[in-house]
Amino acid sequence: MAAMDDWSCDIMALYRAKRETSKRSVKSNYSIQGFISSGTYGRVYKAQSLDEPAKLYAIKKFKPDKEGDVPTYTGISQSAIREMALNREIDHENVVALKEVILEDKSIHMVFDYAEHDFLQLIHHYSQTLRTQIPTATLKSLIYQLLNGVLYLHSCHILHRDLKPANILITSGGIVKIGDLGLARLVYEPLQSLHTGDKVVVTIWYRAPELLMGSKHYNKAIDCWAVGCVLAELASLRPIFKGEEAKVEGKKTTGGLPFQRDQVLKIFEVLGTPDENDWSNLVYMSEYQNMKRLDYYPNRLHEWCQTRLRSQLAYDLLKLLFVYNPDKRLTAREALHHKWFSEDPKPTRNAFHGLHSQLPQRRITQDDAPSMIPQPQNASHQPGHNVIAGGAAAQLSKPGSSASFASFASLSGGGGHYAANQGTGGHATHAHGPVRKKARLG
Amino acid sequence: MAADFWSSSHYKRWMVDRASINQARAVDILYVDNHDPEYFDFLNIYFANAIMKLGRRLSLRQRVIATAIIFFKRFYLKNSYCETDPFLVIAACCYLAAKAEECPVSIKQVALESKAHFSQEIHNVKSTNFDHTRIAEMEFYLVDDLESDLTIYHPYRTLTALCKPDPSSSSSSNTNTATTNNTNPTLPDTEPEEGEAIEYPSPSSGTHSLNPSLNHPIDEGPRYWGTGQGQLELPDGGFQRAWFIINDTYRSNICLIYPPHLIAVAAICLTVVFHPPSRSEIVPHLPSSSSTAKVGQPPDTILTFLASLNVSFPLVATIIQEIVSLWTLWDRYKEDATDTSSAASSASPGGSAGKMSSMSPTKPHQQQLQRLARGSTATLSTLSTSTPTPTAGGGDDPACTTDNNDSSSSHSPLVEEPAILFTPSILSNVLVKMREGRLAIQQATSSNSGSSSSNNNTDGGSNNPGSGSTTPGMGKAANKMLERAQAAG
């Protein structure tokens, strides 16, 4: 059979050679300007188109798998497959656009339109540098566009499943772009339940109560909950439900997942203990008994909003996004029609319209890993002293991975950076580590 | 499943015409006997069967298998059989499709099952090394050639949107979800896929998946075409019959050329004609022996329903004709008796249930096919006359409305039974010969000039009967064809 093996290899060699001649490479099309962020999936770079130098891109390079030190093919990850497959089907102003995918050097490179800012960076800018609230007009425009993007995804039968400030980008022109579909899924006639594929979805602070209660079934409402959390965070400049994630014993998650007691408590402290009459499925959920052991809390959302959201209508919208029963929670479409958006100030297409100061640019650095950057470059790209570099980021051992750069990076490991930077107070590191844990098949 | 089919990558980038498909085989045809394109029709059946069987070994659902077949076909729009290893491509397609459809299987399992399956005598694939790193490498190239377009629309979706699953088997699936603790009671824990159980009766799927589920309204997607409302209730077994007919279409290029919803409508029409219980419901209303186009009495519900769909019935008629052609062709293809795969226990051409059980596989077959084809055409002409769509005008003779291209290049369906029977071993020998021929040329050219592999002048001069169809860089040519096809709409 040796001869036959040769023959088979020859065929592959022939095929490889043919591919080499026709392939499109990253370097011949883009100049890499710097490193933006990293995560367990790989690294993100800022790049400039060689054809149209005015065009900027974020190239997400998935790490090649390695056997020893040699990069090898082990199969493309489920999350990369998702992100490619979904991005190729969608097209909306409020969703980050995938320009192309380049497969090169055993790695996948996804080329996205570049966005200068993100919600997390904005929040930090206001909480650390400006030390004021985000103006209502800006906040409203951002949420409106966010909802618009979520509505589009939902109408495409896509659940994002990881909405959080770091994943919501903003262009320098003030257009919101939802990013990172690495955890997103089509829910149209799934062959397997959503639960089967990914045991845990959504970064814990933004995770909807039905997920926390162990429901095996969930729907678009989980994204709407996350939008509520983001709205609250923009208003108060810190996460509204900042729970501590309970860790799984050991490495495998086969033995069931722990009850996220602290996260549930954080929600109850503001929204009160859920009423079984409003949410009849609650009693069937696997964490129901655990929940029953918690103290009773009254709903204090109105009080919470008093100092943070100046509008009664804004409170009303938040209240509806925070309805416990997912079937009664406001949908993205309903939310867009909420009266708050027709109250002055009205949302603007450029969310930054009317702002006096500009947000700092996204910082890029030199890569500290085997790099795509051709030659040493100085990373002093930002005007003045970046707010991100102060305060929270100082606690980090790796400044390169600081908060504002988590946006492209939060695919699977970014949560850690995010948590550290979110912690402007004493809890800086409590959620460090796997803020998001995902157990995937295959 | 983006917003709808019309904005999908499937529609925008991957609807191809027959000329592009022929063009994609331009290198391969140099290396088959007599440069006979018919080999490729049989290879289509052979490869589709191989993917289905490997898919079953991996416990993949029918929709995943269908996706794998589409991946395979799209890959070979840009590549040649003789310059690649189709069995490795099959393994990569199954692996990738499972991920794309969100029910992944491990690559080691794919490697293991591929090895086990293709080492069977009928395939005689001894040369392919199904090492998992090779499958992963192939997957990489595959994704590249698929241009990362991994979302596929299948006719099954339209079928389930248009037709209620068989009433006899729908009862128990509802109870599944009623008892589960879920926040969203409409989302069942597992969704048995309609009609797929009979495609491969296996003990594990059992009664559960025999019951087509009524539960897929988590997201009742919009009907992305047409005006039809409501659902058609086919008589007993009709839904599954239509399902099987759709399965059959993956053995041809129908699934590359026509939009999936039209394939589904064609399958429903064929079901109405072929399936005795369904047929009996419409027979009184059929223009008997095409004497009258208008029916005196009001048309029955099935016909009314079909007529209400805002689709091009001439196109549907063309698809029907192509399905019938496929069946005729398929009669000349036999999987060897030595196939020990348990999955193929029901009928020898694995999974050809639609074909095998809808008609008797005996001699009168040909006439029956002809008669039924005529019958379906007649049915359609009734539909056409009662449909307000402007496209429905020339429904009487679908052949006239067919693309010239289509009818001329496709094999004539109703010729006499030919002598040659095609089997997997014959076809895998054909493949071996093709590859050896190609490699020999390759070695000759590389030793002569050491130039790149795209230099085909030598073999073009000696072998090519079509004179000048050999072009360097077939992949690019196929790409251009695709672009042209898109531009043409």
TrEMBL record, chain A:
Species this protein is from: Amanita muscaria (strain Koide BX008)
Reaction catalysed by this enzyme: [DNA-directed RNA polymerase] + ATP = phospho-[DNA-directed RNA polymerase] + ADP + H(+); L-threonyl-[protein] + ATP = O-phospho-L-threonyl-[protein] + ADP + H(+); L-seryl-[protein] + ATP = O-phospho-L-seryl-[protein] + ADP + H(+)
- Protein kinase domain span: 30-341
Q: Where is this region: Disordered?
A: 421-442
The record's comment on protein family reads: Belongs to the protein kinase superfamily. CMGC Ser/Thr protein kinase family. CDC2/CDKX subfamily.
Q: What is this protein called?
A: Cyclin-dependent kinase 8
GO CC terms: mediator complex
The EC category is transferase
**What is a single molecular function from GO for this protein?**
cyclin-dependent protein serine/threonine kinase activity
User: Where located?
Assistant: Nucleus
PANTHER family referenced in this protein's UniProt entry, alphabetically: CELL DIVISION PROTEIN KINASE, CYCLIN-DEPENDENT KINASE 8-RELATED
Keyword terms: Activator, ATP-binding, Kinase, Magnesium, Metal-binding, Nucleotide-binding, Nucleus, Repressor, Serine/threonine-protein kinase, Transcription, Transcription regulation, Transferase
Q: What is its main location?
A: nucleus
Listed Basic residues bias regions: 429-442
UniProtKB/TrEMBL annotation, chain B:
Which cellular compartments is it found in? Nucleus
Q: List the biased-composition ranges (Polar residues).
A: 202-214
| UniProt keyword Transcription present | yes
Keywords carried by this UniProt record = Activator, Cyclin, Nucleus, Repressor, Transcription, Transcription regulation
Q: From the UniProt record, give one GO term of the biological process aspect.
A: regulation of transcription by RNA polymerase II
Pfam families associated with the record:
Cyclin_N
Its GO CC terms are: nucleus
User: CDD domains annotated for this entry?
Assistant: CYCLIN_CCNC_rpt1 (cd20513)
Q: What is the protein name stated in its UniProt record?
A: Cyclin-like domain-containing protein
